[in-house]
């Protein structure tokens, strides 16, 4: 089971641009932690539809430079269509191959809600290290896998998929979270093993509030570019979605909304000033 970039669509890309408020909010915190300054060169890996890029463009001003890369054509298209800054560009690319970027050329690199999707994390970190300037910083905001089991949404998805028809057919070890998600310890180890000095780590609880169960599954499908329920066999996937929505609907609070928390790791790492590329 791998991450599929071909499951995305125009519709999911458009939905993501409209409903990714919680990722955007996390992204602005990540940018604050990175202390981005006017004039800096920025690489946004997994830039999606460019919402955070548009925000950071205002910080770096006309003297900075910004490049966003993402493997999903439809999202890169939205980002370019909405881009109004001459010093910003979005192109198709993946974290594991930054071959088109010179060594030691970037001040700040960040991956906001992206690193848990990256299949070859070692390769990506080697590339990030190579292209960062000495003293340059890398920022990560990514799901805390060790806390997944206590986030309501995962608990409900997993409880539905462990019953009835799904019990024999679904292997949790194959879920994207299990295959590619990472714990805080994994993240710190990976950063340190790839030459980066870990400067700051924080886990933050982020509450999301939804009007309906359908809004939740739509949000997950758009955020996962069609990879939600990848580990459920094709023949059971639509029914699984209906059953999960029915279960989610039971969790409405007094004001009719459905609320779930999710835990995000914010990590800032730095390439040492004395390092050669
Ligand atoms: C949840 S979205 C986050 C988008 C954006 N960073 C934001 O803050 O809204 C995850 C993004 O990661 C991208 N992605 C997945 N695997 C990737 C990889 N190997 N390299 C770069 N981007 C990747 C996806 O294409 C998708 O746009």
UniProtKB/TrEMBL annotation:
UniProt keyword annotations, A-Z: Methyltransferase, Transferase
Domain Methyltransferase type: 43-138
Signal peptide: none
Domain of life where this protein originates: Bacteria
Pfam families linked: Methyltransf_11 (PF08241)
A molecular function (GO) term: S-adenosylmethionine-dependent methyltransferase activity
InterPro entries: Diverse_substrate_MTase, Methyltransf_11, SAM-dependent_MTases_sf
GO BP terms in the entry: methylation
The family this protein is said to belong to: Belongs to the methyltransferase superfamily.
Matching PANTHER family: METHYLTRANSF_11 DOMAIN-CONTAINING PROTEIN (PTHR44942), METHYLTRANSFERASE TYPE 11 DOMAIN-CONTAINING PROTEIN (PTHR44942:SF4)
Protein name: Methyltransferase type 11 domain-containing protein
Organism of origin: Paenibacillus durus
């Amino acid at each position: 089971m791998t991450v599929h970039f071909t499951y995305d669509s125009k519709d999911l890309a458009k939905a993501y641009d409209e409903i990714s408020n919680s990722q955007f909010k996390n992204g602005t915190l990540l940018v604050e932690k990175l202390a981005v300054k006017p004039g800096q060169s920025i690489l946004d890996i997994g830039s999606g539809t460019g919402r955070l890029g548009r925000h950071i463009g205002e910080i770096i001003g006309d003297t900075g430079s910004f490049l966003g890369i993402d493997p999903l054509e439809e999202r890169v298209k939205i980002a370019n269509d909405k881009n109004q800054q001459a010093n910003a560009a979005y192109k198709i690319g993946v974290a594991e191959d930054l071959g088109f970027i010179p060594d030691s050329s970037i001040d700040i690199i960040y991956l906001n809600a992206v690193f848990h999707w990256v299949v070859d994390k070692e390769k990506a970190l080697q590339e990030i290290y190579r292209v960062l300037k000495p003293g340059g910083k890398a920022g990560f905001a990514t799901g805390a896998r060790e806390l997944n089991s206590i986030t309501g949404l995962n608990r409900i998805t997993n409880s539905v998929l462990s019953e009835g028809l799904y019990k024999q057919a679904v292997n949790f070890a194959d879920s994207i979270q299990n295959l590619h998600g990472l714990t805080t310890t994994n993240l710190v180890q990976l950063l340190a093993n790839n030459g980066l000095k870990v400067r700051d780590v924080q886990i933050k609880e982020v509450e999301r509030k939804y009007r309906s169960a359908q809004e939740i599954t739509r949000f997950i499908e758009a955020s996962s570019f069609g990879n939600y329920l990848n580990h459920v066999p094709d023949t059971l996937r639509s029914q699984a979605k209906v059953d999960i929505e029915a279960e989610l609907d039971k969790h409405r609070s007094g004001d009719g909304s459905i609320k779930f928390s999710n835990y995000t790791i914010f990590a800032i790492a730095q390439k040492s000033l004395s390092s050669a590329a």
